[in-house]
Design goal:
The chain has 454 residues and is mainly α. It is built from ten helices and no strands. It is rod-shaped. The mean pLDDT is 80.
Amino acid sequence: MAENTFPVHNADTIVNFYRSEVLTGQEAKHFTKGDLTPVPKPESVQTLYMRVLHLLFRFKPECHSMVPLLDGIQYPAYHEGATTILSVYTRMKQFLPMCLVNDFSLNDLLTPKKQRTLVILSAIMNFLHFRKERMEKMLEKQAKFRADTDKLRAYTKGIREAEKKIELLTTIPPEQQAEADELAAALSELQATTVHEYQEVNTTKQSIAELKTKMAEKTQKLAQMKVDVSNLKEDISKLKSQIVESPEELKSQMEKMRETVKNIKKSITETDECTVEMQNRVQNATHSEAEIHQMYVLLQDLESSMNNAKQRQEEYQELVVQNEKMQKELKSLLNEEGQLKRGLDMKLGKECKQNIRRQKKREMKEQHVQEELRQCEQIHQKREEMADKIQQITGETQQLKAKIKSLRDVCSKETEKAQALYDTLSTSMDELHRRIEMHIADLKLNITENAANF
């Protein structure tokens, strides 16, 4: 006892501690410093040890005076006085090694000494402080674990509600199924018309290219004709200056020239008419190209919407698979929680009332959620236009994706915390079971030794 790992307190501090933490009622009032100093009273020390054993192991003081029921005992009345002291001695000898006091003897009960009793009581005091701290931490961990389980249940309910909303948003109601079929038929018709118009546009483009080549040839011919006319005019002017021939030849030449001019004018008018026709055709072709471009843009939008719908369906399937995995994990966690509850049924008796209140609150919440779902169904029935519904579905699905991601993150964090708590609880329970088994083995050995001594 020269090298202690716990502080040895004064008699005043020991008396105050045991009066406030261990003793109750009249025993606390009558327990004073005179019971420990200058010479400890054996009766007060024995009652202190009995109350400590009752506080720690729920071993009542009345149980110490019980005589074992054996057939071969002679004069059982003589054993009544010694049984209490021996039972207290055996149990204190089993308990005090946990307080780092390994040399407890009968003299500490029958003829206690001041310093010796102060050391033993200070060791028990240190153990009670340690036990109180551990109990507070265990209660905090239990409260955190219960809060985590409540959060898990709330998250599972949120996931289920999100799945119901996704089903409502993805499934087309029977009232609007006819409209959806009509839209699909209209889309198929539009695709067929666009294909036909694409073919017509290609044919018109080919015809326009041919007309352009013809126009280029005619413009070249006109240029050549203009050059010829200018040359002829120059020749006429030269000839006029050099004319000495007969007027008949001049008249014939002039008629020929007039006929050529008429032919040139006719060709010019014909080319002008062709150019006008070509311009009209080009304008019609540009107008048709604009309409075709608009139809192409609409088809691209429809294809993008169909691709988005397919992507949403794939994402929904992935979410369903992930939800199944999460449900399996939750089932495993619930099984582990059931095992822990079975081990902690004695300590969770006080929480039944709180669980009943929580169940009532949950029922109220479920009723409120059902009412909200009914209102949502009524609102969905009132929707008429398909385009507005598609926009609302996209917005809600994005929000649900964000919520599901946040819920997954929180669920993963909470599962990790619950796993850590479960590991700590399992290790602590294993240590407690080992200690209890060691104490039971020591008790059996002491009982056999006492029986042999008796």
